[in-house]
Amino acid sequence: MRLKLGALLAASLLLLAPVLWAPDLRAQPSPGAPAGPPAVSVSAAPATIGPVPLEVLANGIVQATAIVSVRARVDGQIEVVHVQEGQSVTRGQPLFTLDSRANRALLAQQQANLDKDRAQLARARSDAQRYAALRSDAYASAQRAEQAAADALAGEAQVRGDEAQIEQTRLNISFAEIRAEADGRLGALPIKAGNLVRLAEGTVLATITPTDPVLVTFNVPERWLAELRAATTRGETPRARVRAPEDASGAPVWGNLVFIDSSVDQQTGTILLKARFDNAEGRLWPGQYVETVLVPRTDAAALSVPVAAVQTGPEGRFLFTLKDGTAHRVPVRLLRLAGDRAVLAAEALGAGDMVVTEGAQRLRDGMRAVARGAAGARPTAEATPAVQQAAIQQVSGR
Asked: Which of 19, 71, 308, 395 has the least C-beta neighbours within 10 A?
């Protein structure tokens, strides 16, 4: 019986021996398995040092340099309207023609009076010369000679008065042709042909709004006053650019600052500014709302990165840099924004340092990362949440 039990035990050991001594294949890494979590694929761009303008954003309103109100300068009925509402006109272009027949008749009457008075003046001058000769020969009294001279002087005054009246009537006739006093665009025309207009009523026949150049008025916080005064002291004219919201696809229009208000508005803490813009293409329209950017100066050597690279956390602003395939969290101090660039204090970055612009939310300090398009970069699809969590645990030691 003992021999049978021993034989069974020996047989069992022989059967279990291969299992006990077999190597654990699961513990051996396969030749193609990765050594750790894959690098996170991100987008990156270099930090640059170069000229960056100082930009002050504001909301502006387009204004005309002047608005000309067209009024009649004489009484009369409108015979012809030469223009249409909204039409562009040039200085000197006819707008309206008034009935001037009454003034023309008056001019003819005044011309006849002038001819009569000139004839009388000629006779008075002749009498004055004759009596002056007789007075010298003692054939006429001094009183008669003086009277003839006075009549000649009165005749000259009468002629000058007639000529002045004729000039006034001719001026009134010219006023019957109402012309544009400035280049610009017409507004609505409330008066039509056939209406009677009177000088005393002061009726506005039309308005002309010049559109080239135009002004843009806007307000900026008073903290920028020092920059504006400094630019004025340097003899520089600050530049400004504007763009209408509906014209976002077009290039901005550039102009020059021409006016700084003499005082700061105490209620709003802002100061009123005006900039002049050439507007030959008519892109800016009086009364239009525009996005305004004032450029009081340009920093020649500013450190800047894309705005998308700057992140905000509980401890302040930071960004990630890429170096040797590793992401490094770098605290930064933001000075200002200039378009799509963020100007930073040159403390922790240098020109050419690669900063992460897309994918920073998946990074932690010290994590493996590679820029898209670089050698060895993995597709973005590999950065799944499970892989990100594994990489975070590896970096944190969990």
From this structure: 19
* Residue in 102, 101, 121, 100 with CA at minimum distance from that of residue 163: 121
For the beta carbon of residue 119, count every other beta carbon within 10 angstroms: 12
Phi, psi (deg, nearest 5) at residue 182 = -160, 160
The yes or no reply on domain 73-99+177-209 and CATH 1.10.150.450 is no
- What CA–CA distance (Å, rounded) separates 242 from 289? 10
Kindly report, residue by residue over 328-361, the tens digit of the pLDDT. Answer: 999 988 888 887 888 888 777 888 889 999 988 8
Q: Would you state the CATH architecture of domain 40-51+301-396?
A: Beta Barrel (2.40)
CB 360 within 8 A of CB 43: no
The DSSP H or E segment spanning 159 is helix 142-175
Q: Report the half-sphere exposure of 115 (CA within 13 A, side-chain side).
A: 6
CATH of region 100-175: 1.10.287
Among 16-30, 157-171, 178-192, 194-208, where is mean pLDDT lowest?
16-30
